[in-house]
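tool_call predict_complex ligand=zinc ion
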Amino acid sequence: MTYSWGKPDKRLIKNGKVMCPFCLKHEAEIHKTLGVLKCKECKKKSKDYRKEHPEIFNPTRREWVPDRIKEDRVKNFKGAIQPYREGKINREFVEAYPDRVEAMIKEGAVTREEVKKSKYQLRDLKGWYKRNQTQ
Ligand SMILES: [Zn+2]
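tool_result ok
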């Protein structure tokens, strides 16, 4: 299969299929020009992107993370970068995944203006300074 919009993220490919970047459970919908979109299930569940990801937009629901996982996160900092913190898109994410951000803009999940104004919000995370050398 050829992709006119560039190859999808390697992590999304399972058994030769491109998986939904939101749930990783179902096959993603492939748009001719936009590339990888969320699967039908995810679309059905909610049309409201923010409602769909309360863990991203609800800062009061902080997760507890064991040390072992924290170390993994340092090693895989880039791969663990979340798109949002407290409702604002992270500049770290914008820099790490320009293609995905572009698709999110097209999908209406975020505006170009928000992306332009994005700030580094993950500086307090261990491994931040080496984020560009990680996966
Ligand atoms: Zn999905």
